[in-house]
């Protein structure tokens, strides 16, 4: 190896060492741990104890079901909302644009615990503003934390609130990269605003939207904060337990690291699979 | 097809006025070129005609109907943009048909129009590509095709050739000219390139800083510029301007002497009132110098550089630090001397006052 390359590697060595120790090794090690029976002391190798349990565990299927339900509802709704927000943000009619941009982005910056506390207050059954609003149109109050379906809705609403603005800012960047004269040409071509949106804006935004979808899929597969902090650790009775929560419960409550590792690898594999599917569908339609 | 009338058209962006009352008549079927330096308001004027910018004051009529409050989509105009503005995600065939399709035009008619445009522009083979897979010249051809398909009353072009290389520019210029002959539709063409203006236009509109300086046929502007700006803008290489002083006025016109060489005196057939001793500019085009002794007076210049192009030569010279360009069609080599004596003919010289107005 030429000297200058060796010097370069010498400078990179501290980083590579830390990377290997705290990133690469845990990834490999957790894969190995998923083949260990970690409920005995000392741990014992077993091909099937964790993976076998996984395919038969009703708690796993419940968590998988909950995660996928949230994914299937939340991601499309949020991306659609983010696209609409981005288009509104991009409108030349909008005054005080930086203010809105900041407001939409703020939820990402707010501390998770603070945001969860505020959501719990807002959705509180007796004092929450949401139930007050629902009551003001004559509907009965919703017990957001005791009813499984309502709790799922609450998680979806909360996640959407937290990440829609973030995605809107990304999509806005995509919108701003579409040259304005394309729209002027379309206007002179007698193509209306709505037609312009569906035939020009959306197709040109497709790569960006796809990127947002993939990011959101990965995020939702790992969903933890909202069901943990807002709906009482996956409550009521496991109705909002996600894969992320199950992993946490197995790993850090039951200290069953082998099973937790198997769940972690399942989450990662599903996220990759769903993202690839998205990319594939996106490419196909082109 | 339609003519246009602009009456006292003013455009302001906020408090900043960029077009200061434009008046213009464009006849049906005419090829009009707006020409002027960058930032003089050509695009703004064109975009107001298209309806892409609101008119602050005044009226624009297309085909005798005021269109100030008519939506751009209803003005029956088509525009070709400098950046082509093709829809990047569609094949060029769909680029051409998209507008008609969206408006429910019958399919056969759309296909007929697209085929017709493709024939005119000879772009049949490339129809199924996307804009990104085409060269600049090809893209511009499709952008023009998209305009043809619209069958508009008026074509608008905003510097359509600026992004092309020199050779392609000449080729496309010829094609646009041919297109105008073939279609006979009114065309308004914006450029900062006086050569394009001279070669394409039936009528040139010279703009400067938001004002129309002169309107006329290309040769009219060349032979009879209204002021120093137009004189300098039309013609290539640029007209030379030499500082001069009024010596006096006689029966045969005004006599001036060059500041660079007061011995050089010239009497021009000018009848405007002028004050002796006042400073003026003597304008003479590079191609209008004559051989020494053949004109009304001679002057001697110092040669800096000579360019020999084969059919002609340009001599870049100075006379007491005032630069000038002289075209010498008959000379293919500069000779050894670094000075040159040439003749000036009063009939081919122009006089401009200190404000740049023409003294006639
Ligand atoms: N949207 C706008 N807002 C403010 N000023 C503008 C806008 N468009 C053009 N201008 C100004 O108007 C003047 C004329 O611009 P333009 O018509 O584009 O010039 P040209 O096409 O002759 O180069 C310029 O000074 C430009 O800065
Ligand atoms: Mg312009």
Structure notes:
The complex is a heterodimer of chains A (286) and B (360). Chain A has twelve helices and two strands, in the order αββααααααααααα. In chain A, β1 and β2 form a beta hairpin. With 286 residues, chain A is mainly alpha-helical. In chain A, α3 runs antiparallel to α9. Chain A has helices spanning 3-33, 49-56, 58-90, 97-109, 112-122, 129-136, 148-176, 180-188, 193-221, 225-229, 243-253, 257-284, and strands spanning 36-37, 44-45. With 360 residues, chain B is α+β, with helices and mostly antiparallel strands. Chain B has two domains: 4-233, P-loop containing nucleotide triphosphate hydrolases (Rossmann fold, 3-Layer(aba) Sandwich); 240-352, OB fold (Dihydrolipoamide Acetyltransferase, E2P) (Beta Barrel). Chain B has helices at 42-50, 92-102, 107-121, 136-149, 166-183, 194-200, 218-223, 228-233; strands spanning 4-13, 16-26, 31-35, 57-62, 65-66, 77-80, 154-158, 186-191, 203-208, 211-216, 240-250, 253-258, 265-268, 279-284, 290-291, 297-308, 313-319, 322-327, 339-344, 349-352, 358-359. Chain B has a six-stranded mixed sheet, sandwiched between helices. In chain B, a hairpin with a 6-residue loop joins β12 (253-258) and β13. In chain B, α2 packs antiparallel against α3 (107-121). The longest helix of chain B is centred in the middle third of the chain and has 18 residues, at 166-183. The chains are: A mainly alpha (286), B alpha+beta (360). Chain A binds chain B through residues 179, 181-182, 184-192, 195, 199-200, 203-204, and chain B through 50, 52, 72-74, 77-79, 81, 83, 85-89, 98-99, 102-103, 146, 150. Bound molecules: adenosine-5'-diphosphate and magnesium ion. Adenosine-5'-diphosphate binds at residues 13, 18, 36, 38-44 of chain B.
């Amino acid at each position: 190896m030429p000297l200058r390359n060796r010097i370069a590697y010498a400078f990179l060595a501290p980083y590579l060492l830390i990377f290997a120790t705290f990133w690469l090794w845990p990834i490999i090690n957790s894969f190995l741990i998923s083949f260990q029976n970690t409920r005995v002391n000392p741990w014992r190798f077993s091909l099937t104890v964790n993976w076998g349990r996984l395919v038969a565990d009703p708690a796993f299927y419940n968590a998988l079901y909950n995660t996928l339900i949230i994914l299937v509802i939340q991601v499309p709704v949020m991306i659609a909302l983010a696209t609409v927000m981005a288009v509104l943000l991009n409108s030349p009619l909008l005054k005080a644009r930086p203010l809105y941009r900041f407001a939409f982005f703020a939820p990402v910056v707010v501390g998770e615990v603070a945001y969860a506390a505020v959501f719990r207050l807002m959705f509180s059954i007796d004092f929450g503003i949401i139930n007050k609003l629902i009551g003001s149109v004559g509907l009965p109050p919703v017990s957001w934390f005791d009813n499984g379906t309502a709790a799922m809705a609450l998680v979806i609403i909360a996640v959407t609130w937290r990440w829609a603005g973030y995605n809107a800012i990304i999509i806005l960047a995509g919108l701003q990269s579409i040259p304005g004269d394309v729209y002027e040409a379309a206007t002179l071509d007698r193509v209306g605003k709505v037609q312009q949106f569906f035939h020009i804006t959306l197709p040109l935004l497709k790569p960006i939207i796809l990127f947002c979808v993939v990011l959101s899929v990965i995020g939702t597969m790992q969903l933890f904060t909202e069901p943990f902090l807002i709906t009482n650790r996956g409550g009521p009775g496991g109705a909002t337990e996600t894969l992320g929560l199950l992993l946490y419960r197995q790993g850090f409550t039951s200290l069953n690291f082998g099973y937790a590792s198997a769940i972690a690898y399942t989450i990662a594999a599903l996220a990759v699979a769903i993202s690839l599917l998205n990319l594939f569908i996106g490419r196909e339609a082109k | 097809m339609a003519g246009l009338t602009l009456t006292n058209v003013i455009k302001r962006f906020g408090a900043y006025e960029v077009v200061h009352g434009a008046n213009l008549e464009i006849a049906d079927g005419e090829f009009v070129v707006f020409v002027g330096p960058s930032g003089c308001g050509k695009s703004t004027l064109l975009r107001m005609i298209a309806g892409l910018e609101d008119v602050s004051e005044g009226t624009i009529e297309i085909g005798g109907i005021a269109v100030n409050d008519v939506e751009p989509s209803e003005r029956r105009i088509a525009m070709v943009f400098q950046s082509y503005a093709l829809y990047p995600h569609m094949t060029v065939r769909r680029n051409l048909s998209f507008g008609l399709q969206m408006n429910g035009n019958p399919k056969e008619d759309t296909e007929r129009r697209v085929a017709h445009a493709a024939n005119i522009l000879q772009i049949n083979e490339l129809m199924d590509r996307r804009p990104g897979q085409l060269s600049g010249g090809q893209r511009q051809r499709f952008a023009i095709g998209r305009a043809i398909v619209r069958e508009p009353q008026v074509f608008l072009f905003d510097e359509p050739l600026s992004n092309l290389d020199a050779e392609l520019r000449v080729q496309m210029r010829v094609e646009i000219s041919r297109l105008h002959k073939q279609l006979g539709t009114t065309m308004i063409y914006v450029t900062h390139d006086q050569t394009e203006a001279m070669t394409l236009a039936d009528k040139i509109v010279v703009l400067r800083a938001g004002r129309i300086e002169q309107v006329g046929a290309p040769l009219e502007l060349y032979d009879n510029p209204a002021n120093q700006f137009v004189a300098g803008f039309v013609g290539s290489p640029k007209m030379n301007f030499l500082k001069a002083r009024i010596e006096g006025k006689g029966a045969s016109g005004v006599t001036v002497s060059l500041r660079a060489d007061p011995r050089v005196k010239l009497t021009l057939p000018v009848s405007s009132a002028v004050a002796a001793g006042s400073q003026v500019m003597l304008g003479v085009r590079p191609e209008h110098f004559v051989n020494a002794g053949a004109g009304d007076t001679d002057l001697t210049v110092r040669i800096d550089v000579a360019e020999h192009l084969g059919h002609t030569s340009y001599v870049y010279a100075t006379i007491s630090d005032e630069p000038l360009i002289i075209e010498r069609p008959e000379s293919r080599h500069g000779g050894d001397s670094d000075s040159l004596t040439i003749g000036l003919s009063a009939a081919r010289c122009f006089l401009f006052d200190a404000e740049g107005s023409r003294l006639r």
